[in-house]
Amino acid sequence: MTKNRFHESLTTDNAALLLVDHQIGLFTGVRDISVGELTHNVTCLAKAAFRLNLPVVVTTTAADSMWGPLIPELQAVLPEGLQVIDRSTVNAWHDDRVRNAIEATGRDKILIAGVSVEVCAAFPAISATAEGYGAYVAVDTSGTFSATKRETGLLRLQQAGVIVSDYASLVVEMLADNADPLAPGVYADLDMPFAALVGQLAAAHGR
To answer: What count of other Cβ atoms lies within 10 Å of the Cβ of residue 146?
Structure first.
């Protein structure tokens, strides 16, 4: 069987994370997921990515005017010194600084989350796919402004060959082995009911 990017596993060695425009102004318009859940999810994704030592690129659009700064919950988990790239281009991939930052990671798979899913996540994912990257969009860390926008955005992603998933599945795929010493911390970062159960089972087994 001929392999393609759909058969290749994400790993901590081949993946990078791109977070696009999780800004206060854009969050005010999100309607397909609660703002609280979206905030929780993207923050958990970022924490897990840093724990797994993934390169992380973060962008905003017109942070000083149109859409405001990053949501404070996400800003709080970014390492000190990580530069947020503020740009004017609609498609983050069209900003040389963003594209160069991804290229500099040396990774050929990109996890992307953005608000909105059909523009901020989809446009760079489609562009990256066209340039030969394996692009993944974490849907539950990428809100948008109506059900129609969500549905059409997901269709366009699938038509373009982008892999769509939820953030926790992408993280545990990269974790790969529950015996990894990082596993307890990663599951804690995910902060989901199944993650708590995993921790309880691990603790019981260790007794």
So the answer is: 14
Percent of the chain with pLDDT over 90: 86
Whether 97 has a pLDDT exceeding 60, the answer reads yes
Write b or e for each residue in 77-94: b if 16 or more Cβ atoms lie within 10 A of its Cβ, otherwise e: ebeeeeeebbbeeebbbe
Distance of CA 26 to the CA centre of its chain: 16
Cβ atoms within 10 Å, residue 198: 19
pLDDT at residue 201 is higher than 90: no
Complete DSSP assignment for 123-179: HHHHHHHHTT-EEEEEGGG---S-HHHHHHHHHHHHHTT-EEE-HHHHHHHHH--TT
Give the closest residue to 50 by CA, choosing from 42, 59, 39.
42
Is the pLDDT at 196 greater than 80? The verdict is: no
The residue-averaged pLDDT of 173-189 equals 94
The one-letter amino acid code at 56 reads: V
Catalytic machinery residues: 120
